[in-house]
From TrEMBL:
Main location: membrane
UniProt entry keywords in alphabetical sequence: ATP-binding, Cell membrane, Hydrolase, Membrane, Metal-binding, Metalloprotease, Nucleotide-binding, Protease, Transmembrane, Transmembrane helix, Zinc
GO molecular function: ATP binding; ATP hydrolysis activity; ATP-dependent peptidase activity; metalloendopeptidase activity; zinc ion binding
One GO BP: protein catabolic process
Purpose of the protein: Acts as a processive, ATP-dependent zinc metallopeptidase for both cytoplasmic and membrane proteins. Plays a role in the quality control of integral membrane proteins.
Name this polypeptide is given: ATP-dependent zinc metalloprotease FtsH
Organism: Candidatus Woesebacteria bacterium GW2011_GWB1_33_22
Length: 638
């Protein structure tokens, strides 16, 4: 669940929107009136008002007066508006200065028997002239005022760059609580104390304890750092300011520092409160790390301002800063010292119990079949983060709905778990020869894994293309491990090279399909030599110096200081490990060739073989065979 977001001041925002709409409507009305006035003569002309077919000459009008066809006459200067007894109206004109009474007398018409009135237009004309002069001035003045106000607003917007763009969640508006977060119990315990600091500050002040000023949440993507921050806000019931590290940065110099000041000013005004900065590594990287960036760099100014606001001369009580990052090794040491981020909470991938708890949370609202085994799913999803598990269940629900199933079953979850990690299945057009090579390659991985002592059981083998791979062999860990032994690492390298060994043995040929296996195996072998001291070169770290700081921060980037002679020895050790793994894989492939053929045949027929089907062919996994003592060897082809 996500906390409900609110704007800084919704009433003011709504009022401002209504005002803008009113201004637009007023100017629309004024513009419409001007258009009507401009086109009024044309409209009258189209409607026949004032057109020549309603005009009569003066002699005809006098003749109609004599014949008593006209009921009344209105005289407007030189115009005669004639109203006939049949209620029609016509217009006649007399000469300038000519008296209407004299015309009647000259035409033998008795003026006393005729009803006529004289309309004085002097005032109306004067008003019309005034309006015709004043109205354009008013309109131009209004337009000028509007343009000036727009420019002023634009200038204000420029200065508003320095205002914080944090999303503000008002007190009591956060729905997420610690009950919505699972798999990170140790981190939750640390943050429960932070909530208690905000709820009961006097309890700690009484004994002389100081409230932590900052809490850094560090861990890989998807483990729940942002969710934990939302839960703290929901539990503490205080105003919550959320902002991403990248939102502090703009083109203009000094904007980041200005936004930091504004953000902390708002938080202090509503203290006790929480500030959450997501992806803080965007602005909190080590200063001068490259050796080329000076102290006036915009990012460094922003970082300096954060350092001052968190622990400067101005006291900063009852405002706790939460920050999240998955790149703690990049953060500046000054940001991590006590007094700033007092607490550093490390989040890891969830263990089996944590995965079951996360699955229980995200399974709410979904319909599952009776065959669902949550313990088995938790075992299957070793290495999945909380976000991966949520996505897996969502993909399973989508897949079940697409097939019009009434509920989600284990098949849907198995497919969605594979899809989350490897991508959707693809029906690539492969020749029969390509499919056969892929089948033996994946069968080689499975056979070597199954008969290697230190490896976990094979879970699934498939030659269905997913992502960039033409097939896959899933070997999820049987249990969560915190340590890897040298023997197990050698077993992993051997299993990774099982595909290449099978290709060489069966087809007497090498393919490019083993490129990813070789890359991963080489990475492990190189780490064994240069990082973990698992070679004849002894327990020495030959990599870059990353010894300083909790997260491995260094003031300057350390180049690899290994000499060329030592680098050659390192390369030889890595090659020795790789060749040893390939030789062991070749031995197992040669020994269990008949089972390799059966597994490959099953893959070519069914494309996917699960654990039960695989073990029916090769038997239950026993202790297997050890890799043996690492020696300098040269692989032999059969």
């Amino acid at each position: 669940m996500k906390p409900k977001e609110e704007k800084k001041d919704p009433k003011k925002s709504t009022k401002k929107q209504v005002t803008v709409k009113m201004k637009i409507n007023i100017w629309t009305v004024i513009f419409s009136i001007l258009l009507v006035l401009f086109f009024l003569p044309s409209i009258f002309s189209l409607l026949g008002i004032g057109s020549t077919d309603l005009k009569v000459d003066l002699s005809s009008a006098l003749n109609d007066l004599k014949n008593e066809k006209i009921e009344k006459v209105s005289i407007e200067k030189n115009n005669l508006i004639l109203t006939y007894k049949d209620k029609t109206t016509k217009l006649a004109s007399k000469e300038e200065g000519q008296s209407f009474t004299d015309l009647l007398v000259a035409s033998d018409i008795d003026p006393n028997k005729l009803q006529f009135t004289v309309v004085d237009q002097t005032l109306a004309k004067a008003m019309a002239e005034v309006v015709s002069i004043v109205l354009p001035i008013i309109l131009l003045g209004g337009l000028f005022f509007y343009m000036m106000k727009s420019q002023t607003r634009g200038a204000q917007d420029i200065f508003s760059f320095g205002k914080s763009k944090a999303k503000i969640f008002a007190k009591g508006k956060q729905d997420t609580t610690f009950a919505d977060v699972a798999g990170v119990d140790e981190a939750k315990k640390e943050l429960v104390e932070v909530v208690d600091f905000l709820k009961n500050p006097e309890k700690y002040k009484k004994i002389g304890a100081r409230t932590p000023k900052g809490v850094l949440l560090f861990g890989p993507s998807g483990v729940g750092k942002t969710m934990l921050a939302k839960a703290v806000a929901g539990e503490a019931n205080v105003p919550f300011f959320s902002m991403a590290g990248s939102e502090f940065m703009e083109m203009l110099v000094g904007i980041g520092a200005s936004r930091v000041r504004d953000l902390f000013a708002q938080a202090k005004a509503q203290a006790p409160s929480i500030i959450f900065i997501d992806e803080i590594d965007a602005i909190g990287r080590q200063r001068g790390r490259s050796g080329l960036v000076g102290g006036h760099d915009e990012r460094e100014q922003t970082l300096n301002q954060i350092l001052v606001e968190m622990d400067g001369f101005t006291p900063n009580e009852s405002v706790i800063v939460l920050a999240a990052t998955n790149r703690g090794d990049l953060l500046d040491p000054a940001l991590l010292r006590p007094g700033r981020f007092d607490r550093r909470v490390t989040l890891d991938m969830p263990d089996k119990e944590g995965r079951q708890a996360i699955l229980a949370i995200h399974s709410k609202g979904k319909t599952f079949g009776k065959d669902i085994n949550w313990a088995r799913i938790a075992d299957r999803t070793v290495g999945f983060s909380g976000a991966d598990l949520e996505n897996m269940l969502n993909e399973a629900a989508i897949g079940a709905a697409r097939l019009n199933k009434p509920e989600i079953d284990m098949t849907d979850i198995e497919e969605s778990a594979t899809k989350v990690k490897l991508g959707p299945a693809k029906k690539r057009l492969q020749s029969a020869e390509d499919k056969k090579i892929t089948a033996y390659h994946e069968a080689g991985h499975a056979i070597v894994t199954h008969f290697t002592k230190g490896m976990d059981p094979v879970h699934r083998i498939s030659i269905v293309a997913r992502g960039m791979s033409l097939g896959h062999t899933l070997i999820p860990p049987a249990a969560d491990r915190t340590h890897d032994t040298k023997t197990r690492l050698l077993d992993q390298i051997t299993a990774m090279l099982g595909g290449r060994a099978a290709e060489e043995f069966v087809f007497n040929e090498m393919t490019s399909g083993a490129s990813n296996d070789i890359a991963n195996a080489t990475r492990i072998a190189r780490a064994m030599v240069i990082e973990w001291g698992m070679s004849s070169l002894g327990p020495v770290n030959y990599g870059p110096d990353t010894s300083s700081g909790e997260f491995g921060q260094t003031d300057w980037y350390q180049e690899n200081a290994v000499s060329p002679a030592m680098q050659e020895k390192i390369d030889n050790e890595v090659r020795k490990i790789m060749e040893h793994g390939l030789l062991e894989a070749e031995k197992l492939i040669k020994k269990y060739k008949s089972k390799l053929d059966l597994v490959a045949k099953e893959l070519l027929e069914k494309e996917t073989v699960d654990k039960d089907q695989f073990e029916r062919i090769v038997g239950k996994k026993q202790n297997g065979e050890g890799v043996g003592i690492l020696k300098e060897v040269t692989p032999q082809k059969s």
